[in-house]
Amino acid sequence: MQEKLSFKKGYRGRTIFRIVNVVFLIFVMILMIVPILKILSDSLDTAGTYGLNIIPKNPSFLAYKTIFTTTALYRPFLISIYTTVVGTAIALLLTTFGAYVLIQKDMPGRKFFVWMIFFTMIFNGGLVPTYLLIRNIKLINTLWAVILPLALNVYNMVLMKNFFEQIPESLFEAAEIDGCSPMRIFWTIVLPLSKPALASIGLFFAVEYWNHFFNFVMYITDTSKYNFQIKLRELVLDSQNLAPGAEAIYGRTIQYAAVLVSMLPPMIVYPFCQKYFVQGVTMGAVKE
Amino acid sequence: MFAKTQRNNLTQGTAVVPKKKDLVRRIIQYKYFYLMFLPVFIFTIVFNYIPMAGIRFAFYKYNPFAPPKFIGWENFKTLLVNPKFIAAFKNTITLSIVNLVLGMLVSIIFALLLNELYNKYFKSFVQTVLYLPHFISWVVTASIFYLILSPTDGFINQILGFFGIEPIYFMIEEKWWTPIYYFINRWKETGWGTIIYLAALSGINPELYEAAVIDGAGRLKQTWYVTIPGIMSTILVVFILNLAKVMNIFESVFVLQNPMVLNVSEVIRTYNYKVGLLQSDYGYSTAVGLFNSVISMVLVIIADKASQKIKGSGIL
Amino acid sequence: MGKPLVKRTLSIFIAIVLALSVAACTKKAEQPAAPEKSEKSEASKEPEKPASIKLMVDGTFITKEAGQDQFVAEYKKMTGVDLIINQPAHNQYYEKVNLAFASQDIPDVLIISGTTMVNYAINGALYDMTDLVDKSPIMQKVGQKYKDAVKINGRLYAFPTQAGNGPITYMRKDWLEKNNLKVPTTYAEYLEVLKVFANDPDQNGKQDTIAFTAPGLVSDDPTTLQNYMVDFYQDASPDFIKKDGKWVDGMLEPEMKAALERMREAYSLGLIDKEIVTNKTSTCRDKFNAGKVGVFTYWAGTWNMNLENELKKAVRDASIVAIPAIKETKYLERVPATMAITSKAANPEGIFKYFFEFMHDGDKGTLLFSHGVEGVHYKVTDGKYEKLPSLQDPKKPANKAFIDNGLQIVPFNDPITPDPRITESLKVFNANSIVSTLLPVSENYTKNSADILTARKETISKIVLGQMTIEEGLAKYEKDTKAITDLILKDFNAAK
């Protein structure tokens, strides 16, 4: 697919488009990055500033040092990573299993299963019954109370199913004729051919776990089990509507430093996911 | 799909297999699949269907101090005679659906543009930068944009001032607030939204492009006849799934609201949040939830029907 | 594919049936017991010591990171009682309180104040401690005004933990001095100061200052809605007020018109922060700390020190002064923060003695609840008390444990003298303020207070920013709210 840039006749329009495209995307990148630079500059600024300066007045890395030395923020960071890794693994297993079963067009009861699952995306029992359930199955104050309810996500399952449906049917038929069991087809054909889907939906789950705070607040009473996101919300939100007379323990410098620290893992992980968005994965398989 | 071949073998025999037997046989054939579905089934029952019993509280008077009392449609009456609720409902639908459609359009366009980049590293870099704002919480996003749009020292008004235009206090003008709301959402979620389409784009069979090139199609034609049809099913699925979430719009509006623009910005969940803070009335809030669910369901069914007309199959 | 609709509806129907059948199997919530009436026990009977007290607190109470465990250990050492503390995230506190009651995981004691407290009390969820308070010699020492402020129909269902405190007007002292201005004592002088503050008071040749800022024209604190702008509201209040022994809606009183006129004029002259309606408290603090703001009405006490310290980081020679209220107005002290015993608690008399009385003993207990634990939060050398560095941020001195610096409501000889700025501004505040009291009980109010507050905010904001005239705005407000406010006022006027 790689084309050379050239201004020869017939290539001219294409070349102009590609240059314009790059320039346009760079412009959009700047748009995206400016507000983030503002956050960065504020996190490095020890003196109070207000306004749109991008250069900190008295730069110092104090805030970052504080974050990584106080256990108050360092432990939650580890808990975030733990729930994200464990949760994403469980969630991907459930999602791929479910999606694989739901593409079996001739399976008796398939339609019922699909609607049964989809229904839960729209209707839910509300706060109190869910809380009572978590309490009755003895998950209160365990990290499972956060991990398990999020592991089954209808939205992601339907997306995954949609990706599985793109796999050419001839592959399945060939495998069946060779006498492969459903499980084997799943492991040797479906999963390897769905790398882009696994990468993107895995990312969705990971980010959901990373950003999650609500279940922590609801089901976890021991604050030493809180994750980074809650601490972040406490830093930012509570200082916005401080209880009258309460003191802000951390200033805006630390709040914004925490915002940036919480962005680091997603920033590091994403390029690894992008590796899988490559064309022509399925093709090789069909040709074999 | 699976077992198709076996079934063909069955029906090719001379004897016609009775239907019931066929069903039992098929269930047995699919036994592994039922087994695979078991964990999903258990999860759904435990975490979704057991608490769903709570939906009945929409018809009860229910607060933390007394056992629930059945009151029939009372909560819904309270809801639907309240002009504020009706106004909030209208705002929810407009803001949310316009935001959804705009969001998908912009994300699809960006996914296509990103797809045209050939330098692997540059592509990866652009994608990462575009996706970053998704990780800045709404509260922080709001405070940054309030700064940028500030009438006194905001960046935008400084540019306007350069051209001799009077400063505009964007966030309190109803006519400005809505477009700005859409813009900030795009700023925050565009890169995030492209991910799913980028994944879908990589699933398109390259042979199709080769065939199109042989037919003499240029890049635009290839996009139109190969790329877009190739991701159409993903577009439909994403659209319908997001429709199911349309009524949940909350935080993005909540942090950008102020008393001057409530006419255009009060949505169901922000309105309820304010009312519900003091009331601890679970019956009423469940009723609101149920109302939202029913509306979502209707939207999804309409969209699914339309998708069947367009594409010949629903998303499920 | 093309599934017929019938089949789909059927599947949905089956799903619903499934859900309902499951519903039938789930356990019914237990019946909450009827609230107990406090029995008249004889004064001589010594209440027995509770083995443990289950406590539900918000972020104002000492957190785990700040040394909660040491606090609990110290409390146990002093009283012999175990404190079992549940401290949900600050922003979801009341949500979690509701949930605790709905799911019958009810604590013995909890922080609960304002409208929520009234709602809980009238629903019988809180223990009536009036008799215990009346009999208690320790509680007689607590300022009567604080007790009166939190009474519901003349009874105490919760007890104040500290003074309500409230916002006081802070001015940039260095700007006053630079421009040879005196601290204003009347509104006319106050306006003069604002005019100077709006016009390059720091003489840096740029028009980059804000004379006055506030987080919105109407605050969210019921009964003190005007607290961040008392100098402009003066004798008017946008809330329900008692006038000549009768409750009225302050929005529709004549003095409100004058107040709106004042604010509108000041706004149009550029004396009030242009962005006032979209400011959050944090925005205002950021602007003030950056040295852009001349006048800011904010919490008295600790904040005097905080604001000045932060300000000095940006502007080295800056200083601030908390001014006495101008002639036309008084500062507003909020309804005090309170804690309550739940009606479910097994031994309310014991809890009252070992927790509430201990907190207000004016001695060791008050010291513990104010400053925390010796050796952790403060140290004593040769009888001299001194704060230790905070466990969370070693660059700062330790924070309060629960009761704010200088806000104790019992006579207490505090061995740790807070920063003079704190005591000074509290002194000025106390000399210039009136204590607000809870609104009477009214179910109509509980149901509609959010709607009414929204209408008030919208009306005042639109009038002051010039989108509506005063007459238009108030007429619209009256039309929208009259039906419901009439019901509320009827309830209020009928209340004891």
Verbal overview:
The complex is a heterotrimer of chains A (288), B (316) and C (496). Chain A has 14 helices and no strands. The longest helix of chain A has 33 residues. With 316 residues, chain B is mostly helical. The radius of gyration of chain B is 26 Å and the shape is flat. Chain C has 496 residues and is an alpha/beta fold. A five-stranded mixed β-sheet of chain C has the order 2-1-3-12-4, with helices on one face. The interface between A and B is large, with 109 and 98 residues.
Roughly how many Å apart are the termini of chain A?
A: 22 Å
- Taken as a percent bin, the fraction of beta residues of chain B is under 5%
Counting helices, strands and paired strands, the structural category of chain A is mainly alpha
Distance between the amino and carboxyl termini of chain B: 16 Å
Spatial arrangement of strands, main beta sheet of chain B: 1-2
Question: What would you call the quaternary organization?
Answer: heterotrimer
Secondary structure: helix percent of chain B: over 70%
What is the number of strand segments of chain B?
2
Largest beta-sheet characterization of chain B:
2 strands, antiparallel
Largest sheet of chain A: none
Order of helices and strands of chain A: HHHHHHHHHHHHHH
Topology (elements, then pairings):
The complex is a heterotrimer of chains A (288), B (316) and C (496).
Chain A: H1 12-44, H2 62-69, H3 71-102, H4 110-122, H5 127-136, H6 144-151, H7 154-165, H8 169-177, H9 182-193, H10 195-211, H11 214-219, H12 228-240, H13 252-274, H14 281-287
Helix pairs in contact in A: 1-13, 2-13, 3-6, 3-7, 3-10, 3-12, 7-10, 10-13, 12-13
Chain B: H1 4-12, H2 19-29, H3 31-49, E1 60-61, E2 69-70, H4 74-80, H5 83-115, H6 120-131, H7 138-148, H8 155-162, H9 174-201, H10 206-214, H11 219-243, H12 251-256, H13 262-265, H14 268-279, H15 282-311
Antiparallel strand pairs in B: 1-2
Chain C: H1 5-25, E1 52-56, H2 68-79, E2 82-86, H3 93-102, E3 109-111, H4 114-122, H5 130-135, H6 137-140, H7 144-149, E4 159-162, E5 167-172, H8 173-178, H9 187-197, E6 210-213, H10 230-233, E7 240-243, E8 246-249, H11 254-268, H12 281-289, E9 293-299, H13 302-314, E10 320-322, E11 331-333, E12 337-341, H14 348-359, H15 364-371, E13 378-381, E14 384-387, H16 420-431, E15 433-435, H17 443-464, H18 470-494
Parallel strand pairs in C: 1-2, 1-3, 6-9, 11-15
Antiparallel strand pairs in C: 3-12, 4-12, 5-9, 5-10, 7-8, 13-14
